Amino acid sequence: MKDSKSTTKQSRRTLLKNAVAATFGAAATTTASAQTNSKAHSEEIVAPRKPGQGVTPRAKEIVKITKIETFLVKPRWLFLKMHTNAGVVGLGEPITEGRALTCQAAIKEIEPYLLGKDPRNVAHHWQAIYRHAFYRGGPILTSALSGIDQALWDIKGKLLGVPVYELLGGPTRDRVRVYAHARTPEDIKTRKAEGFTAFKCGPAKLNDRPAHFVENRQYIDYCVERFAALKQIVGKDGDLGIDFHGAIPHGTAKQLIKALEPYDPFFYEEVVNCQEVDVMADLAKSTHIPLATGERIFTKWGFREILEKKASIILQPDLCHAGGITEVKIIAGMAEAFYASIAPHNPLGPISLAAGLQIAASIPNFLCQEQVSLGEGYIKNPFKVKNGYVELPTAPGLGIELDEELMKKNDMYGHDWRNQETYDPDDGSVVDW
Ligand SMILES: [Mg+2]
User: Fold this and answer.
1) How do residues 193-225 score in pLDDT, each as one tens digit?
2) How far is CA 14 from CA 18, 47, 59, 107, in A?
3) CA separation for the pair 177, 215 (Å, rounded)
4) Domain ranges in the chain?
5) Is 245 an annotated catalytic residue?
6) Rounded to the nearest whole angstrom, what is the distance from the C-alpha of residue 135 to the centroid of ligand 1?
């Protein structure tokens, strides 16, 4: 019995060593060889899981997080690099726009938890970072968690040699539709020439002032005429959404969305503030145009009420705010149960876009992915748009590689981006933008 048990231990060690060597490449193999020679290692591998340790019998000690770096990137981003002893580096964007330094500090505070941990236990780390904070969620902490989650998935995919969507049950589609921002007819023409077929604009503001609680006909007509002019260039075979940034008071909101209806907006985004769920639900009942919201909503708990009250059927969780790939996949499942779709919000960088593409390729209810950069000047092999779509990335993990030499050459490191201050030009009061 003793010999048989010993053989089993040896056999499992050999199998594990071979599996690791095949999976993780030379860097991990070297580490594995060194560690499989130690008594402590063999005991840990064959030992049953110890309560509270979160250790699974799969060579947990072989891959460890060794260092986390964050750096500000123009125009207003924050990139994260998570290093491991296996030589694999994960990328993330842990950023709330306008609070890059605050997010950087949040990562620094979370770092001690992650150092020495196995990056492959993605969902476990998500739970620990979110729940052990005691004061849960909010834009800063969920943005920090989101960037970490992206990097963990990137590492896991790279270690296993597959895109993240393969680990999430995908691919569910061959390519991913993306949309571009456009403010003017010239913008639409330029983006169309680049290959886009879906666009988003903001409401035109008469005399550059925000909407008042109750608006006059001149204000409404101005907004509608400008939208109609853009839509005409987009054409009937294209799509044009409109984002109100939650800045339209209730009194004007119904009037405005009814007036825009004849021009078939793709969706109405954040007509009112996302915290006004009952108002959104009321608006949703008053129009056949889908309402969209989600860029300022965090985690599955944040989206629950939106779905339950049918306040929106296009959810726009941000991969850098809502809780990362782990959480947006769950939110997409919740949305599916309510026959709602997912259009990830993304005014950020190429890591955010790459994370969104992984989600698009792993869920059934995807609508369209927002982007403001295809990665030119930031990553090797930037994404390309053709007939409104980008091809699924096929490289392991998130499928992108930073071009740090180019970023350095173009002076892309560091920024001091701040949220704009906006006041009513008529009376100087604070307004939303
Ligand atoms: Mg928006």
Assistant:
1) 999 999 999 998 888 888 888 999 999 999 999
2) 6, 16, 12, 38
3) 36
4) 7-50+57-61, 165-409
5) yes
6) 26
